[in-house]
Specification:
Blueprint lengths: L10 H18 L7 H14 L5 H13 L7 H14 L3 E5 L1 H4 L13 E5 H6 L11 E5 L3 H10 L3 E4 L6 E5 L2 H9 L1
Parallel strand pairs: 1-2
Antiparallel strand pairs: 2-3, 3-5, 4-5
Helix pairs in contact: 1-2, 2-3
């Protein structure tokens, strides 16, 4: 509406408009209490990162995640949304080939740099033709586990850890969710 009215003509103006709008929404408590943390986070991102915050992209993701439409999608689509949301939070994301995953040429992860890295072969073989998960997806995670778990649970996924490697985790759709999808 602001673009149509001519109030927003550039990305900088768009960021400023959205920050003001979020500040007003927070002050007047225009949204449900459950969204207060998301609004504070968006406001912080917009103020600290400016145009690099990609507030329109973050707002769209939050809208999809909270509107219920996301959980109606297939497993692969929901995982893609999780990874998109992760990159919007500033966490590094990557897909590693087998040589980058293990062996002497393996990528060395730093616990100081937040990231999530998936094994390419798991992404290629982890889903059926309908986008349903058929096997766990290996992930190396150096990001805040609580934040990753929040994003996973919003999209109907969960994480289990490998007890032999503190950075190695497996991403799964809970068995109940998979059975419900298969029965449709």
């Amino acid at each position: 509406m602001a673009r149509t009215a001519g109030a927003v003509n550039s990305p900088a103006q768009e960021n400023l408009f959205l920050c003001r709008w979020l500040a007003t929404a927070e002050k007047r408590r225009l949204f449900r209490r459950e969204l207060a943390n998301d609004i504070r986070w968006l406001l912080k991102e917009g103020r600290e990162k400016g145009m690099r915050a990609d507030l329109p992209g973050k707002l769209e993701y939050l809208w999809r995640a909270s509107s219920g439409d996301l959980l109606a999608q297939n497993d692969l689509f929901r995982l893609q949304h999780i990874l998109h949301a992760i990159t919007l939070t500033g966490i590094n994301y990557g897909v590693l080939s087998e040589t980058e995953w293990e062996g002497r040429h393996a990528t060395v992860l730093s616990p100081k740099i937040p990231g999530i890295f998936l094994r390419k072969s798991d992404l290629q073989t982890g889903f059926d033709e309908q986008g349903g998960q058929v096997r766990p997806i290996a992930a190396r995670i150096t990001a805040n586990i609580g934040a990753v778990d929040d994003l996973l649970s919003r999209a109907g996924w969960e994480r289990t850890c490998d007890m032999t490697n503190p950075f190695l985790h497996y991403l799964n759709v809970p068995a109940q969710k998979t059975q419900e999808d298969n029965s449709k």
